[in-house]
Design a protein that fits this description.
Length: 259
């Protein structure tokens, strides 16, 4: 039983044994989602994450974190408007609620799914999840992403730095930190975080995109921007049209940029 006097909430949660094989599949699902698919956007990583979560649920159909992890994966897919995945996410959240309505990761997914259109409901569930498990990396990262999506950039910076205190190599936090520092006009600090991100992960897609933008817009270094863009095209072909447009615009080729 956990009590939170400041919010007037009391939660009673069940603790049960977890099948070791199911737990291993769950960890692989988390890895392919958060360390692979979110970073690089390869559909093969999405497939591997889904397969591993489903294997965990084949072993234990009531494994709440595997249900939440799969719902989280489908939420990521729904964010790019792939049809059907929002419904899949919601069905899994409903299933999870019928098993354990106070599961922290599940609460975080429910909160994040409300998005920027219902911020009060979103943060109600996200912060409740954090109260229950303040050291859950995915919960903290979802809160960070919710703040960023809502344009609360100073708050996002604080959470990104909080994540990096515990996990200095967390690439998602590094991406958010460098992106939001740049959005706030703190170009020098953004460059420093970007250098660190690319040191950790030289082929990081978001890092490469930011590098092109900084070189083209802030450094007036169009040859350097084109070199970085060329490397991005090798690793992520066909996904860099907006970067090509930025470079063309700054080269004065407005018609080509608009096309």
């Amino acid at each position: 039983i956990q009590e939170f006097p400041e919010s007037g909430l009391t939660f009673e949660r069940r603790v049960r044994d977890i099948n070791p094989q199911a737990y291993e599949y769950y960890l692989k699902g988390i890895h392919f989602h958060w360390e692979k698919y979110i970073i690089n956007n390869y559909i093969s990583d999405f497939d591997q994450s889904e397969i591993n979560f489903l294997r965990a649920l084949e072993i234990d159909s009531t494994y709440i974190d595997a249900i939440a992890g799969l719902a989280d994966l489908y939420d990521t897919r729904s964010a790019i408007d792939v049809p059907g995945y929002a419904d899949k996410r919601d069905s899994l959240v409903d299933l999870g609620y019928s098993i354990d309505p106070k599961a922290p990761y599940l609460l975080a997914i429910k909160g994040f799914s409300y998005g920027i259109y219902e911020p009060d409901s979103s943060f109600k569930y996200l912060l409740k999840a954090y109260e229950l498990d303040p050291h859950h990396t995915q919960i903290i990262t979802l809160i960070q992403n919710a703040y960023s999506a809502g344009g609360l950039l100073e708050e996002t910076l604080k959470i990104s730095r909080l994540i990096l205190q515990d996990d200095p190599l967390n690439r998602i936090a590094k991406q958010q930190l460098s992106t939001n520092l740049l959005a706030l006009g703190q170009v020098k600090a953004a460059k420093a975080e970007l250098r660190d991100l690319l040191r950790i992960d030289p082929t990081n897609r978001t890092g490469g995109q930011l590098d092109v933008i900084i070189k083209a817009i802030y450094d007036d270094n169009l040859p350097g921007a084109r070199r970085v863009l060329s490397r991005l095209e090798e690793n992520y072909p066909g996904e860099n049209e907006f970067l090509k447009a930025i470079i063309l615009a700054y080269e004065g080729k407005r018609t080509e940029a608009l096309n």
